[in-house]
Amino acid sequence: MAAWEPNPDGLREILHTIHESTNMTATAQRSITQKLNQFTRAPEYIAYLAYILSEAKTEEDRIRTIAGYLLKNNARLILMAPVNVVNYVKQAVLRAFDDSSIMIRNAAGQDIVSFLGVLEPRNWPECLAQLLNALDSPDYDKQEAAFNVLEKACEDFPRKLDFEVNGTRPLDYLIPKFLELSEHPSAKMRSHAVACLSFFIPTNCPSLFANIDTYIACLFKRASDDDPSVRRHVCQALVLLLAARPDKLMPEMENVAEYMLYSTKDKNENVALEACEFWLTFAEDVDLAPCLQPLLGKVAPVLLDCMIYGEDDLLWLEGDAEDNAAVPDKDSDIKPRHYGQKSHGLERDADISDGNAPPKQRVGAYGEETYNSDEEDYDFDDDDFADELSTEWNLRKCAAAALDVLAVRFGRDLLNVLLEPLKEKLWSNDWLQRESAILALGAMAEGCIEAIEPHLPTLIPYLNSTLNDPKPLVRSITCWTLGRYASWCTHPFSEEHKTNYFIPTMEGLLRMVLDNNKRVQEAGCSAFATLEEDAGPELAPFLEPVLRNLVFAFDKYQHKNMLILYDAIGTLADAVGRSLQNPVYVDILMPPLTKKWSSLADNDEDLIPLLECLASVTIAMGPAFQPYAGPVFERCTHIIHSSLLNYQQFQQNPELDEPDKSFLVVALDLLSGLTQGLGMSLEPFIANTQPNLLMLLTACLKHPQAPVRQSAYALVGDMAMGCFVLLRPHMPGIMAELILQLDPEPRVEFISASNNAAWSVGEVALRYGQNDMEFQQWVNPLISRLIPILLHPKAPRSLHENAAVSIGRIGLMHPLLVAPYLGEFSQAWCQALYEIRDNEEKDSAFRGFCTLVKTNPTGIAKSLLWFCNSIVRWNHPSPELNNMFQVLLQGFKQHDEGGWAAQVSLFPPAIRERLAERYRV
């Protein structure tokens, strides 16, 4: 095939467009972007860009550089390009990498990284060869440019660089070359070398580990390097080695630990941060705990010192050190938030330990679950530390996170080490010392609660008094720390406990909600929301003063904190439930909410959190919300209708911006709230609204975006519970969509939608009632999808649980149709629900399961242990269910006393004892 050459007209057009893009107005931007997008359809487009970058010497460097950046952004086009174009682009980019202009070289370097990533290095060996040769160049600039490219490639795709071609591995040459260059006289080159090597640690690269002893010796040699960038990469490498190959560090751990402690105190914060990551990694690995424990006495005090605000932090937070409540927020102050998408789940309860029980949940300061280890990874970037402790990951935040994990790992031992330094700092005259100690108390709350608890009668009053500190940063961190101990403060130990700790903490945080500093308002409002969650109905007697304080904040808060205030009000409604029905409380809360509601347009993003807040309020107020229901219902249906139309337009014209699904999601969630609160009282609104809500709901069930379907399935379940008679005429269309959504192994983003679908079919089955002819047509399609979900080993636990509940409920209503399948799923069914906390859903599901067992007793034969285990896990079964258990167990025993005795003798003692005690079997 002939070598590629540019067509003069095509070259002129692309150059003209690039020139236009440098001085375009905002209105022209869209047409330029569209034009550039059209060029991507031409197979030779990337060759023109490569030509402009490398050969268009008459053009300004900035024009050639723009061509280089466009080339990087379109790197994937090389996979579909003709061979002559591919060859030309490769050669042209490498030529540009030798250009005399640093701008052109930099752009070409970025192109090389992109093309290596897309093509994979094995398909561009000449590029690797040129970069490797450049590392030996006498020209330092060329050396450095090549190393820049190699470092980025090693960071972005280390596994792609680890390949074999014609019996040789390029990394067998590169790794020794990097080790050699770690001795380079230039600090920049040494830094590149140490960085490049470190990126191959997590991949267990054979070429690196063949040289592991030389590599570790290199790290120790560079540990005392004069250049902080080199030391930072040494610390980073030691962190990665600790995670990937701790066995290689253990023989030298005493020296490594001393070095990392020394580096954690480095004056260069980047070095100190990388070193601090070492202790976080060390603490997170449970297998390394015995090696870390002897170091606690040295490590913990250093971490405590790292939690003091640095000068850079204080400069960044300068605006937070004043009364600034009246200063409007900038848009940049407000982080993106996720709204709606509530997924139906069941609470777990474990009171009899057996060998099959899963590991316990991570618990908070006084026993509350903080995350479900079965379904999500705990990530410090998403924890309180990320929000509370400034805008980005830094030394202070890393030290606090490390202390948190150390507390979980070592509890009392950690507190014993830190008790004296903490006392000293808490009562220091230096506010920075006090503030860091209060942060440490919060960080340790979860793991050290048992050891700290005896000190809390002193510490909680101390923290409440610190809410009066003149420094806003002290007040704000105190709010956060009080939030971490909220579960102890709200625990109903005694009236005295309530008087001494709960009420002062509640009053103190409410004062902070109305502070004159925005950061304190934010921390106070967030901590108060945590207190609300933990206190639950205990807050009901204090609702009037609480509501008056929160309502006062409506007139005081700027944009960012208003969003947190909505959260706090929604959380309060969830916590106190129907106590909010009192007309006095309705009259306090609804005027400011309706005022905000009427001031926001349907497309105003601030409407989203307000709708979510109102969803909780409507459920809590129930019938008391009736006077406000009409306008809310009407607006929700209008938002749903217009959102569906907007999405339809987007599907017909993909060049339009995709509409924000959040409006649709929260409008559906608010209708769910209305349904739960008002039930059949919604009938006139549903009858008189056009287009009809049920028609809109059916359309939402087909929406391409999972969060919309998720909220729509939740609304189906809520309407089944609250006003099934209105839902029933539309059930054929709704059931067709629900059945399709039941997937045993949904994609991660579909899990919550599948959860809600699985839950809602059970609610619908109950409302149809026993042996209803219309529902019978769906029993087999539903069961044929729910059983595989229940049996699928990779389906999320929550999906197993919801599927089991719905199978039980369908079985309760249609036992003859479901009972033949009992043998297939009985063990999995009992395993899915034995830990679930007693509630009505579980009760109806178990009544259904017992009905299936009664209908087909042989179906339980191989799962009797699991069935009995799930029975004895109940704390308070309803009288009807308890009687069903009694009848079935007595029946098993009477049917074959010898066989029953033999089976029961193999049960764990706890199960045998409970069966004998409760059911005399």
TrEMBL record:
<dbReference type="InterPro" id="IPR040122">
    <property type="entry name" value="Importin_beta"/>
</dbReference>
<feature type="region of interest" description="Disordered">
    <location>
        <begin position="325"/>
        <end position="366"/>
    </location>
</feature>
<keyword id="KW-0653">Protein transport</keyword>
<dbReference type="Pfam" id="PF25574">
    <property type="entry name" value="TPR_IMB1"/>
</dbReference>
<dbReference type="GO" id="GO:0031981">
    <property type="term" value="C:nuclear lumen"/>
</dbReference>
<feature type="domain" description="Importin subunit beta-1/Transportin-1-like TPR repeats">
    <location>
        <begin position="506"/>
        <end position="720"/>
    </location>
</feature>
<protein>
    <recommendedName>
        <fullName>Importin subunit beta-1/Transportin-1-like TPR repeats domain-containing protein</fullName>
    </recommendedName>
</protein>
<dbReference type="GO" id="GO:0006606">
    <property type="term" value="P:protein import into nucleus"/>
</dbReference>
<keyword id="KW-0963">Cytoplasm</keyword>
<dbReference type="InterPro" id="IPR058584">
    <property type="entry name" value="IMB1_TNPO1-like_TPR"/>
</dbReference>
<dbReference type="InterPro" id="IPR011989">
    <property type="entry name" value="ARM-like"/>
</dbReference>
<comment type="similarity">
    <text>Belongs to the importin beta family. Importin beta-2 subfamily.</text>
</comment>
<dbReference type="Pfam" id="PF12765">
    <property type="entry name" value="Cohesin_HEAT"/>
</dbReference>
<dbReference type="InterPro" id="IPR016024">
    <property type="entry name" value="ARM-type_fold"/>
</dbReference>
<keyword id="KW-0813">Transport</keyword>
<keyword id="KW-0539">Nucleus</keyword>
<dbReference type="Pfam" id="PF13513">
    <property type="entry name" value="HEAT_EZ"/>
</dbReference>
<dbReference type="InterPro" id="IPR026003">
    <property type="entry name" value="Cohesin_HEAT"/>
</dbReference>
<dbReference type="GO" id="GO:0005737">
    <property type="term" value="C:cytoplasm"/>
</dbReference>
<keyword id="KW-0677">Repeat</keyword>
